[in-house]
């Protein structure tokens, strides 16, 4: 991926060190089978866990000073900020998927296939962006209520575009300046312009890989609606949670330059040497298939990746970074990592 304007990779790397990039899976923070419905309980727990894991202060001074449905008062604690010398912030980035927001609009209009000259696709592009930016605002507000200085950022508005569905160019200057100023960028999967097919959907998982490549976080966490990566769809009785993926673990994968992957160890005859994954019909971003591919590409950069269930005790350990020292036997999730020697 190249950088626009006068920005270089060196400029981005001069930003304060990034501790973690977190992906909030759409299925974990929304009710994916109910159109545009947020899983309020999960989102609240996840926001609290992010504050506890990544901010140094336990005192919550909310930053959402807007009126909420069903609540007459606006929570604006000005006095709480007068007592603070600074706003606590550990450098991290949040990216979220769409879940029940955006996918319906995109799949019904064919935005992900391109053809922007068609009225239906153009209308779907507008409708998709309305939907995903609505979700982005609600996530930013949930984080802000926990005292996290979050700022919503849309790839389309940042000028990101694709070429044949790939992301060769992305201007990270605004993201870097946002972090340098002490804010937490909150990005999301988005409808973007494409110089080959007119338009497409840029998934949050692809955004994760590009951010990781240039921001060089200490670790990356994918929060999902299941415990991790399974050998089969987790609803099947013979599904097994794959706890660790890496060259020196019991399970290893080979990752191609294009992000394609396959299990190399052990030889899983009963699985035909592959993990079976289903993708919802309305999911225009590839679901878990894309997630594993992008996570594996991040791991190839020498960055440990944790895939874990959102709003659980296991996600707290992943977010805090304590798994980098040792993974407890009772921790449930999937770790994808490659040794530094393998990366070089």
TrEMBL record:
GO terms for molecular function: ATP binding; isopentenyl phosphate kinase activity; kinase activity. GO terms for cellular component: cytosol. InterPro entries: AceGlu_kinase-like_sf (IPR036393), Asp/Glu/Uridylate_kinase (IPR001048), Fosfomycin_R_FomA-type (IPR024192). It catalyses: isopentenyl phosphate + ATP = isopentenyl diphosphate + ADP. The lineage of its organism: Eukaryota, Viridiplantae, Streptophyta, Embryophyta, Tracheophyta. It comes from Citrus clementina (Clementine). It is an enzyme of class 2 (transferase). The keyword ATP-binding applies. Residues 19-308 form the Aspartate/glutamate/uridylate kinase domain. This is Isopentenyl phosphate kinase. It holds the Pfam family AA_kinase.
